[in-house]
Amino acid sequence: MSAKAPRISLGNVLLLLPAAISFSVAWGSDFLWLEALLFAVVLAVGGVLGKRFGWNSKPPGILHLPRQWSRRPLFVCAIPALSSIALRMALLPWVPIPHPVVPDEYSHMFLAKTFLLGRLANPAHPLWEHFETLHILSQPTFSSMYMAGQACFLALGKVLFGDLFWGVVISTALFCAALTWFLRAFVPPGWALFGGLLAAVRIGGASYWNNSYWGGSAGALGGALLFGAYARLRRRRSVGNALVFGLALVLLANTRPYEGAVLGAALCARLAYDVLRPREVEWSRAVACVAAIVAVLGCAAWGMTRHWQAVTGKPLAMPYMVNQQTYGWPMTLPWVKIPHVQYRHPEFVLYREYELGEHKMITVPTQIPFGVLVKYAFSWRFYFGFVLTVAFLFTSRILRNPRMRPVWVASGITLLAVAMEQSGYPHYLSPVAPAIFLFIVQGLRYVAQIRGASSGPVIVRAVLPLAFVLLVTRAGALSPASQPSDAMNFFSWCCTDARRNDRQPVIDRLNAMPGEHLVFVKYDVKVYSTLEWVYNEPDIDRAKIVWARDMGEEKNADLLRYYPKRSVWRVVLHGDGGDPRKLDSISTSGQP
């Protein structure tokens, strides 16, 4: 860090405009209004306190011992990981273990449960048409469309601690540790610890990455390992770091394959340039590192193709692509050809319309700017919020740092790739999340040195306490005793709220009754987004509750004959997003 105090340029100030637009639109979400109010208070009193106590960019004396400890790599990486776990466990009374709501969650959990049965795929059910659902294949096998990365963490949580949820917590804790390890390659140890703790609060506290089963942390873990290994391989050709680099590529391929491929290709190209640039190349070390990476990728490719073979019948046919060919979604990229599909269920036609509406924001020129702004708004709320936006004031200075330039270039290429994707939610950016945190930490380092303003150090000291206060406030507002919000918030950094789509109250009611159950799900909707209840266990016939689509009396009779001993129920889902306790009653007649 240069000793010269940084200045704020007008060009960097203009970068606050998109953030200001996002704030004006979403000020009521995630208590952004409270964050802005608290930040104003910090600025108001910061000048007075900073001058009175002589605060500057140097850490306060009370942090002397932690700064000494931060020089120990194992310790400095373990503290954010343990803090993430402890904070999430402390919030359990207010933010309990979540229930799946979004189709992606059900699909990842389905794959994890399949692995726990000792299978790579499940046989197709003879009456599979009743069980068709979003993001899960019914033919040629009954399997998730997703890659195995997130499911492996979920299965690990079940094996170690008895619940899939703890796999999410493990992945987030490992991300916080790997992020700190990555940051140590570019910033002083104390600032690396600060960045890791910031991630522990914003991501580990109860973000949707750590409070749902979508994923996010696993992809970010892959990104942190990839960036960290790259930074170390630049300095020293180590087989150990090469193995980490290869494992990171494998993890990205199995969590965020598209974004991971773009980021991996960019860093591999840069690494090859760094290796071959010197006049005297250490060929023995370089060859050993390449061999280590190739060996890891080769073993992973064998395992991945075995999985695809089991699911689709073809070793090179990804389940995700087969799902696109079968149902026409997800419509991920603008150049992907959307097949015409004849759907068996009317709600699938409505879901296709929902997907097409999202797809227009990356294909229709007049809608592309709006789509980009929506993606920016989601990511800004998740990664920055009001307080951390101050890092934008030093964007040009941050990006000029020659040591960090390869990180910014690779991340910029990946961001452009994400901009072309449909939706582009914050977890799409998870491979470059470590770079975003590096940007924030570096920006806060400059904020602490703002010339002629004593409020800079005050702002930096207030970052973690403010994040913690906002997290606790949001968690308290979403406690089980509170009323579910009318506006569901799937992408929050500080607790998600999707209880109005939660089918768990119905499951609890049926589980409390004796015997096994067959539930016909009927949809009374005009607009169908991701409201879906037809999700089953991998071994359907042995499940206590079987969820099936209501396809009319004639076709329903096939299921009644197939399950003659089950109690039969019907639930009607309306498109008003109402609480399951307020949905139409579940009848117990002999006919569905």
Topology:
Blueprint: H1 10-14, H2 16-26, H3 32-53, H4 64-69, H5 73-90, H6 103-116, E1 122-123, E2 136-137, E3 141-144, H7 149-161, H8 165-183, H9 189-202, H10 217-235, H11 239-253, H12 257-276, H13 283-312, H14 319-327, H15 346-363, H16 368-384, H17 395-399, H18 405-419, H19 433-447, H20 455-477, H21 504-511, E4 517-524, E5 545-549, H22 553-562, E6 567-574
Parallel strand pairs: 4-5, 4-6
Antiparallel strand pairs: 1-3, 2-3
Describe the structure.
By secondary structure, the protein is mostly helical. The chain is built from 22 helices and 6 strands. It has helices spanning 10-14, 16-26, 32-53, 64-69, 73-90, 103-116, 149-161, 165-183, 189-202, 217-235, 239-253, 257-276, 283-312, 319-327, 346-363, 368-384, 395-399, 405-419, 433-447, 455-477, 504-511, 553-562, and strands spanning 122-123, 136-137, 141-144, 517-524, 545-549, 567-574. The chain has a 3-stranded antiparallel sheet. A 3-stranded parallel sheet has the order 5-4-6. The protein is globular and about 75 Å long.
